[in-house]
Amino acid sequence: MRSKSLALIAASTGLALAMTACGANTSTGGDTTTDTNTDSASGGGTKVGVILPETKSSARWEGFDKPLLEKALKAEGLDPDIQNAQGDVQKFSTLADGMINAGVKVLIIATPNSEVGASVAQKAKSSGIPVIDYDRLNLGGSSDYYVSFDNEKVGELQGQGLVQGLEKLAPGKKPAEVIEIEGAPTDNNATLFHNGQKKVLEPKYGAGDYKLVQSQAIPDWDNQQGGVTFEQILTGNGQKVDGVVAANDGLAGAVITVLKKYGLNGKVPVTGQDATPEGLQAVLRGDQFMTVFKPIDAEANATAKLAAALAKGDKAGADALATGSVEDTKGSRTVKSVLLEAQLITKENVKTVVDAGFVKASEVCVTDLAATCTELGIK
Ligand code: GAL
């Protein structure tokens, strides 16, 4: 599905520059005009459009992606218009039409599904506007570039996290009974996460060490639906489960709410991803065994640098940044990519995420976790 080339250099450059941008004054020097719609030749105020997919699936989109993309794009002297389609495909298409008609120089899209992504990219490119698939690859699309994490590797980290959790919380249990609550079937990332999990877990299922009770994908990553589905599977299995794969922190939270009902929270390892404040709190409480930290500032910064090059028509510069590539099997094409690395987070290294400035200690060390944070040096 993807070549192995990973843009680690872009990641470290991106992360280093993003950290600078976070602290830097992003004003453009003496320019005091407040009208950000000017499209000056210097690239200052060059409009770029960003459309995010939804809010319900994960706190990341409005909590991290939007502010970090805004900061990174402005640091490149661009004028971002960032909208969220709220999971509505028609709204996504309408927002894109508006941005194309407004003459954005680059369109950056993270879509609810590949179909709308492919259709929007086609419209943009027929207007001469380059398109970046942000975080999610649109299968069968025509985007010029893709910026994301190595999402199969993210799934492997989730699989490894479950193995570590079962070794700790259900040592010797054979077979350990596992329920998998996966992401939206319309999101190519969900497929990649599951592929990565399977690399780790299928040998365990095959050897009889683990038994897969059921694996269920949740439309739109809908957290509430995820909780209802998980409870149905759990009660259908006689309220027995030893470990749960939850594909992101939002679904993990819904699973934990159900486990609490049956007195199982903290006894059953649950995976996640996104290192959201709620997810990190659950990890510190022991209700969630792990999450995956995806430095979204690096993803936003890499996207902004790519957009800046494209806005200036510097295709060679853009290609020099996109040193990775992925295969779009549906569209039978290779897409130039920036693929960033992610990190497995358990209780022992939550501090890493706070020290990276990704979340504040105040967002994680809430009242009942004050002592735990002190003990772990999180401040
Ligand atoms: C995926 C994204 C993950 C997860 C999920 C739910 O595409 O890569 O970080 O948050 O969406 O929004």
TrEMBL record:
Q: Where does the record say this protein resides? A: Cell envelope
Q: What is one Pfam family matched by this protein? A: Peripla_BP_4
Bias (Low complexity): 26-41
- Signal peptide range: 1-23
Q: What is its main location?
A: other
Is this entry keyworded Signal? yes
Q: Name the InterPro entries for this protein.
A: Bact_Solute-Bind_Prot2, Peripla_BP_I, SBP_2_dom
List the protein's name: Sugar ABC transporter substrate-binding protein
